[in-house]
Design a protein that fits this description.
- By secondary structure, the chain is α/β, with parallel strands linked by helices.
- The chain has a single domain, classed as 3-Layer(aba) Sandwich (Rossmann fold).
- The chain has 13 helices and 9 strands.
- Strands 3-2-1-4-5-7-8 form a 7-stranded parallel beta sheet, with helices on both faces. A two-stranded parallel sheet has the order 6-9.
- Helix 1 crosses helix 7 (199-216) and helix 3 (76-97) runs parallel beside helix 4 (137-156).
- The longest helix is centred in the first third of the chain and has 22 residues, at 76-97.
- The model has no long low-confidence stretch (mean pLDDT 95).
């Protein structure tokens, strides 16, 4: 099988190309940036370029995108061009080339305002059945691209799988107050409870989606680390998260105490990956409990793949207020 991977110079794109090479799967990397994992340098906005890249391709994994950290630095039209028009170009050329699987990397950011319940309400239990309420141009364009994928499955018979990924980037958080309140590894470990995944698990979900797409036809799936929480935890979770974590993963306290770390006082949402595990046959290996175990043993809590890919950043320039400007 030959797989076209867009965004091959990015975190996920590089991880996918590395994984394909290790399994002797043919992979073609496409990106606007040169990298050791990019076969063709060019823009997904150029139809003739995409057509050339699509020759002999069996499956497409579309990971190229403008991200949330670009909202304050790029015009809204750029998001429409890259995230919507670029996706449309790939879908049309995939159909023309007879591609048998199209996997689109979306984001849990499409849920937007659904992720922040009222202060006196329980934390939100986020499944694929929750209606998206995007709150910025990033979320709006990612949701529109999802809908294009569904349209092409319905009208052109293209097998499409949409993966709504949670956080897996290694860069610093984009909120200054959060960065100043928590050690970065403390922050990311906390997030493994409800809104983060390891890059290796995100990559394996994409590989499985390619394999399962012809049988599934179309599907949307949340890709996030398996949470230890249950729906019954939601009321307490939103006002006393440490108590819930203590009940579900009691061994975390000693590890956190040894590092002088702290748990978030409240958690407002929980991403639920049940459907992805069921339909894709996906078994994520990294969750909060495993990270805690690795920290206790003095090991790096990240997967070997996440360590190899490392951090890339989202901007060429630096900003006075931190790694990202905030709109």
């Amino acid at each position: 099988m030959a797989i076209l991977v867009t965004g091959s110079a990015g975190h996920l794109g590089e991880a996918l190309i590395r994984t394909c090479r290790e399994s002797d799967t043919g992979a073609v990397g496409v990106d606007i940036k040169r990298s050791p994992f990019t076969t063709y340098v060019g823009s997904i906005l150029e139809r003739t370029f995409i057509r050339r890249c699509m020759a002999g391709i069996d499956a497409v994994v579309h990971a190229a995108t403008l991200h949330k950290p670009h909202v304050a630095t790029h015009p809204r039209q750029a998001f429409v061009d890259t995230n919507i028009t670029g996706t449309l170009n790939l879908l049309e050329e995939a159909v023309a080339a007879g591609v048998t699987a199209f996997v689109y990397t979306s984001t849990t950011s499409v849920y937007g305002r659904a992720l922040t319940p009222a202060r006196d309400a329980p934390a939100a239990w986020i499944t694929e059945d929750v209606s998206p309420l995007p709150k910025n141009i990033y979320g709006i364009t990612k949701l529109a691209a999802e809908q294009l994928c569904e349209l092409f499955h319905r009208t052109r018979g293209l097998p499409c799988v949409v993966l709504r990924t949670s956080r897996f980037f290694p860069e610093l958080d984009d909120h200054r107050q959060t960065r100043e309140s928590y050690d970065d590894l403390n922050l990311k470990t906390n997030e493994m409870l409800y809104r983060r995944a390891d890059l290796a698990d995100v990559t394996s979900a994409h590989v499985l989606a390619v394999q399962r797409a012809p049988a599934l036809g179309f599907g949307r799936y949340i890709v996030s680390a398996t949470t230890p929480f249950e729906e019954e935890d939601l009321p307490q979770l939103h006002h006393d998260a440490p108590a819930v974590v203590r009940r579900r993963v009691p061994e975390y306290e000693a590890v956190y105490a040894s590092r002088r770390w702290s748990m978030f006082p409240a958690i407002d949402r929980v991403y639920v990956n049940d459907r992805a595990r069921r339909d894709l046959g996906w078994t994520p290996h990294y969750d909060f409990a495993r990270v805690v175990d690795r920290l206790r043993a003095g090991a790096d809590p990240r997967s070997a793949l996440a360590i190899a890919v490392g951090a890339k950043g989202y901007h060429a320039e630096t900003f006075a207020d931190g790694p990202y400007p905030v709109e």
